[in-house]
Amino acid sequence: MKRTLLALAVAATLALSACGGNEAGTDATASVDPAPAATTDTPADPAANSGAPATPADATTDATAGASTQNPMVGGAPMFADKDIIDNAVNSKDHTTLVAAVKAAGLVETLKGAGPFTVFAPTNAAFDALPAGAVDGLLKPDKKADLTKVLTYHVVPGKLDAAALTSQITAGNGSAALTTVAGGTLTAKSDGSGGVTVTDAKGNTARVTTANVMQSNGVIHVVDTVLMP
Predict the structure, then answer these.
(1) Entry pTM
(2) What are the chain's domains?
(3) Is the peptide bond before 116 cis (omega within 30 degrees of 0)?
């Protein structure tokens, strides 16, 4: 009898131990966090791994755009330093009268030549300020010689930017005499505020409103008055 009771007690103890072991094993397995998944994300900048410098998003290699970087806009259009005087002037909405006059005088090929030339370019408003009928009269075929004389009076041989003009004015004690292609003389002076004025033989004074419009064959200075020989 005692042996029977002892055997039952041992069996019960073993059963309880087995149940406890299963519970402990279950809890241990549940408490273990799964290993983090490996990532294969590619870096945002491939250059970071290659050692090559990153290229800015707005970088450009447009050579044509770069040509106009140092030039001011004229008549609402970009001016390109690698184009000649005519090719740039035809794009300015403020110089349609000047371009028409140059064509009528047959000076297109001259101003597309190697030069270099310094051109004082009057705006449409400057031509409009002339006496009534003056422009139409100059554009007539029989006035071609007169028109040519007026236009070439606005052209000086060589490339004289604002710095060169100012230097000549300083060297001339306040004024510089510029000999034009037409053979006449223009007098350049400082306007007292860092700008330049040009006076013709008749005493008309033009102010340079836009300076240093660089061209492949010279430079243009926009002026607000038509100069007369």
Answers:
(1) 0.71
(2) 63-223 (2.30.180.10)
(3) yes
